[in-house]
Amino acid sequence: MTRPALPDILLVDDDPLIVETMRYILEPDFSLHCASNRKDAIGIIRAHDKPFDLALIDLGLPPVPNRPDEGLTLISDLLAHNPACKIIVLSGQNEEMHARHARTLGALEFIAKPARPEALRAALHGALRLQRDEQAADARQRALDRFVGASAAITGLREQLQRSATSPFPVLIEGESGTGKELAAHALHELASNGNRERRFVALNCAAIAPGLIEATLFGHTRGAFTGAQTAQPGYFEEAEDGTLFLDEIGELPLDLQPKLLRVLENGEFQRVGETTSRQARARVVAATNRDLQQEVRAGRFRADLFHRLSVLRIRVPPLRQTGRDRMALLQHFTRLFAGQMNVKAFELDAEAATVWQCYDFPGNVRELRNIVIRLLVRHAGKPVSRMALEAEMESDTDQSAALAQTPIAREEALHTSTAAMPMPTEGMDLPAVLRRIERDYIVAALQQSRGNMSQAARLLGINRSTLYNRMETLARNGEDFGTVSPGSMQ
């Protein structure tokens, strides 16, 4: 096994004896890079292929070694280059004023010369642990930030990912096409890796590879195992090592291969194609599907025992229609991202277009939303986007026939996510007024979704057109405001 790389430490001191002593004390645990003055230290920083983890510096450096100015300036230089660098000052200029100044500038610790070797090593290892804890926390936050939005559905997804990340058991990620199932798998991997970038993430799309090649791809093969196998090759289980093996579209896995995957999940053993020796799998399996695997089990297309092994932990990635105003946050996120990549100015939706955007169901979910943003940037960069221009970039089924064709549950979800949540008062409640307001909100949501078509809105609400007119007029008489969508303006 390859030995992990030693942490890099920049040592800056103009005393050759100190440098040699530090080399003797620290080199078993650290990779030292030495400079005798601030200019040389900056040159080493710029030439180094990655930021330094740690720096150990003297304050009294040439050309004025009897003053702390050069060392204090170097602290600022180091942190400007890499704010995560942990700096320990080792100095003979140990006046309390200098120590306070160094800490104010960002130094982690101040150690006076002469320092005991064990104390110095303990300080450096403590600084390294602190840096790695910070990096792990940053990695965990970045993993969760992959999912843009503040809706209850997205907040719940983040909580599910955090709860499932550190478990060794398989995870089944379910969700419609385009919701971001692979993104969830990456987030699980990053949360589990805790900032360790050496742990691998290996992905296989079971629907994108010929059924006859999946076994050799997963488990590897020996030389001569089949025509064209000129050399032995490891499979994805071996390549993933102790990281994550992501099996996308697991519902497409051939039935005759499912028992072999089940064996790996049960006892961790597998064999390369053409080999009799068992090997041990160390990777955690994360699978994803847009199918209802329980229905696939009932239909005989997926093994029940494999389903139960894969679904020890289940995570549901919500469709975009369930995330409310998150679609506006996603619009802003992707607009900033792709405008920067394309080096163009962002567009802006006008009021009508913004209403259409917020009411649209996005049947292709986040993938469709992202593609619409790209097309709008190509055609309307730096310009306002009208309702007509926006609708021209939407999919061909963007009229409300798609919404009307939904199941009753899906229609109710779509309407519910368009209404405002009603906070429960702590005291004094006018229930009839609250119920009127809820009814008004559902009617407004249905009218927005049907773009003002009363017949379609009535069908969405499960009532007839005349009943809808009557309900709107009654609500209006009781003071409920429909805004521009007034009963008299509808046809």
UniProtKB/TrEMBL annotation:
Domain Response regulatory: from-to ranges: 8-128
Bilayer-spanning residue ranges: none
Domain Sigma-54 factor interaction, first and last residues per copy: 147-378
Keyword match Transcription: yes
Modified residues (4-aspartylphosphate): D58
InterPro entries per UniProt: AAA+_ATPase, AAA_lid_NorR, CheY-like_superfamily, Homeodomain-like_sf, HTH_Fis, NreC/VraR/RcsB-like_REC, P-loop_NTPase, Sig_transdc_resp-reg_receiver
Highest rank taxon of the organism: Bacteria
Tagged with keyword Transcription: yes
Keywords, alphabetical: ATP-binding, DNA-binding, Nucleotide-binding, Phosphoprotein, Transcription, Transcription regulation
PANTHER family per the UniProt record, alphabetical: PTS-DEPENDENT DIHYDROXYACETONE KINASE OPERON REGULATORY PROTEIN-RELATED (PTHR32071:SF117), TRANSCRIPTIONAL REGULATORY PROTEIN (PTHR32071)
Protein's UniProt name: Sigma-54 dependent transcriptional regulator
Organism the protein comes from: Viridibacterium curvum
